[in-house]
């Protein structure tokens, strides 16, 4: 089996060493334990090919291609150069199912993902600076950090639907606000209706009803002096007079 590790485009060969004394098979349940131990990890993995990117831009292009499930030319060259010519006998372990399907479709190599493959790739990422001569942990971290920042910025830039998303979210928020306002208005009508039920029949608009409920308060205190303010709130002299008359003969509950 051969593992493909990215986005640094390194391929690691896993020879079947399980039958030899002191060796651990890559398919063994002990692989998870070996991942954390560099000495044991070397028993199941060795590097057979490594292709560093020539620039950060090339690294970003390869990362974008992998995320979109596209076989980049650099990846194609790496695989065709270092993998055996008999493709049917090659089993390639990859971390991303999309790029695995693309490799299998375009290049004809059988690909496997998940399970023990994910564990071994985790070990490759952990010990990568030890697998490649001349590569330090610090330089590897800097390269990954720079690529991560570039990839994130590119992803935000490439999101052509981001403006549409904001509009959709705004419309959804407005719809939710309408529902909430309507719910709260119904609660005000229900609760204040116990005290002044006739007001519901006179005023249909929720906003006007809430303003009137706040202004009237105790209906027993409503008198001719407040008629002008009622007309201002209702913008209708007839409705204001009807509210005043209804408050005097209301059947609502009242506690002194």
From TrEMBL:
A GO molecular-function descriptor: snoRNA binding
Residues covered by the NOSIC domain: 166-218
Keywords: Coiled coil, Nucleus, Ribosome biogenesis
Example of a GO biological process term: ribosome biogenesis
UniProt-listed SUPFAM superfamilies: Nop domain (SSF89124)
Cellular location(s): Nucleus, Nucleolus
Record Pfam families: Nop, NOP5NT
Gene3D superfamilies per UniProt: 1.10.287.4070
Coiled coil: 213-243
Gene Ontology cellular-component terms listed: box C/D methylation guide snoRNP complex; small-subunit processome
Family: Belongs to the NOP5/NOP56 family.
PANTHER family tied to this protein: NUCLEOLAR PROTEIN 5 NUCLEOLAR PROTEIN NOP5 NOP58, NUCLEOLAR PROTEIN 56
Subunit structure comment from the entry: Part of a large pre-ribosomal ribonucleoprotein (RNP) complex, that consists of at least 62 ribosomal proteins, 45 nonribosomal proteins and both pre-rRNA and mature rRNA species. Within this complex directly interacts with TCOF1 in an RNA-independent manner. Core component of box C/D small nucleolar ribonucleoprotein (snoRNP) particles; the core proteins SNU13, NOP56, NOP58 and FBL or FBLL1 assemble stepwise onto the snoRNA. Interacts with NOP1 and NOP58. Interacts with NUFIP1, RUVBL1 and RUVBL2; RUVBL1:RUVBL2 seem to bridge the association of NOP56 with NUFIP1.
UniProt function note: Involved in the early to middle stages of 60S ribosomal subunit biogenesis. Required for the biogenesis of box C/D snoRNAs such U3, U8 and U14 snoRNAs. Part of the small subunit (SSU) processome, first precursor of the small eukaryotic ribosomal subunit. During the assembly of the SSU processome in the nucleolus, many ribosome biogenesis factors, an RNA chaperone and ribosomal proteins associate with the nascent pre-rRNA and work in concert to generate RNA folding, modifications, rearrangements and cleavage as well as targeted degradation of pre-ribosomal RNA by the RNA exosome.
Protein name (record): Nucleolar protein 56
